[in-house]
């Protein structure tokens, strides 16, 4: 359980971020049950999101399981390419490159970058290091980052971000890029009411504010746990590994869900909107996973309002009791 004194509410951000789109599920059979028959629905979801003003789309070269490896990038690339040029230019497309053990040296990401760029049909605005290698091969990370920085310096991609780094590593990467006169655009971490460590007194949110780095929150709905009303029937649980997580954590998060439901009713909004707006209230851009047009509509509607300060504080208090937490993130570094 986290120490409540170590995760105190931050002051409200001067500018509340919008909402971004996460595409982890596009191509992922293992966790999300992807089937190519869903592609038309995914296309409709993408176009509805764009119609509603959602402009940040996040993917990764490792999204997509088994024979569907890279499918998320390919689908996103096709959808973006189908847009009129003027609408395409308003989007920010970001991908993450995985530092697999065989990707070594300053040129270790070159082939992966070209492959991602091809799948995305040339539409790539930000490249991100998917996770730190500090825990298993610390010598690998620096050269890979230099290679990504080269891509920005050469004008091959507009900006550089990182993912799954803690405060100490974040400062180190920021300083490494600053020595080259390059800006670190964003940090992406797991952040939700069930994974609140990033907003703590010793978390990355305060470092991001200090250094002017955009904070991106992935899994803001905790794999869907925070979108279910309290007391939801077990018959409605998802299949596979997500269902196991729901069974384990569902009974322990009922007080949190009850608080969320009260706030949702006050705003005449769905439960998911409360979870999304809690991330926004802490200065993070939530990357909301969506597969259907109605999910895009719900996410866009959430961006139209903000939590009152008292509501945010109520959610902070319940979340920090720590009755339940998402499983430890194996990709996160200190």
From TrEMBL:
Q: Where is the NADP-dependent oxidoreductase domain?
A: 19-318
PANTHER family xrefs: NAD(P)-LINKED OXIDOREDUCTASE SUPERFAMILY PROTEIN, NADH-SPECIFIC METHYLGLYOXAL REDUCTASE-RELATED
Taxonomy, superkingdom: Bacteria
Question: Which keywords does this chain's UniProt record carry?
Answer: Oxidoreductase
Transmembrane segments annotated in the record for this chain: none
List the protein's name: Aldo/keto reductase
InterPro entries associated with the record:
AKR_Detox_Biosynth (IPR050523), NAD(P)_OxRdtase_dom_sf (IPR036812), NADP_OxRdtase_dom (IPR023210)
Pfam families, per database record: Aldo_ket_red (PF00248)
State whether keyword Oxidoreductase applies: yes
């Amino acid at each position: 359980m986290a120490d409540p004194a170590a995760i105190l509410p931050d002051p409200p951000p001067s500018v509340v971020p919008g909402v971004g789109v996460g595409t982890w599920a596009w191509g992922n059979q293992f966790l999300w049950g992807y089937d190519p028959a869903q592609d038309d629905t995914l296309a409709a979801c993408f176009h509805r999101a764009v119609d509603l003003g959602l402009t940040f789309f996040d993917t990764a070269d490792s999204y997509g399981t088994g024979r569907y490896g890279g499918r998320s990038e390919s689908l996103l690339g096709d959808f973006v390419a189908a847009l009129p040029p003027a609408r395409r230019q308003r989007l920010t497309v970001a991908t993450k490159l995985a530092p697999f053990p065989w990707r070594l040296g300053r040129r270790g990401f070159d082939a992966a970058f070209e492959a991602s760029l091809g799948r995305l049909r040339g539409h790539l605005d930000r490249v991100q290091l998917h996770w730190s290698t500090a825990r298993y091969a610390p010598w690998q990370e620096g050269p890979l980052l230099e290679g990504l920085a080269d891509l920005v310096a050469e004008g091959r991609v507009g900006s550089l971000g990182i993912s799954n780094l803690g405060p100490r590593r974040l400062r180190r990467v920021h300083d490494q890029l600053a020595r080259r006169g390059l800006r670190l655009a964003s940090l992406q971490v797991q952040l939700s009411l069930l994974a609140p460590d990033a907003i703590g007194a010793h978390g990355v949110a305060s470092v991001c504010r200090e250094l002017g780095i955009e904070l991106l929150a992935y899994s803001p709905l905790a794999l869907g746990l925070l979108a279910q009303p309290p007391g939801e029937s077990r018959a409605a649980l998802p299949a596979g590994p997500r269902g196991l997580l729901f069974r384990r954590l569902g009974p322990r998060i009922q007080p949190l869900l009850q608080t969320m439901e009260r706030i949702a009713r006050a705003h005449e909004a769905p439960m998911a909107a409360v979870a999304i707006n809690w991330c926004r209230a802490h200065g993070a851009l939530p990357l909301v996973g969506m597969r259907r047009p109605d999910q895009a509509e719900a996410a866009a509607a959430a961006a139209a309002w903000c939590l009152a300060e008292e509501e945010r504080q109520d959610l902070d208090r319940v979340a920090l009791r720590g009755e339940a937490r998402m499983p430890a993130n194996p990709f996160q570094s200190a």
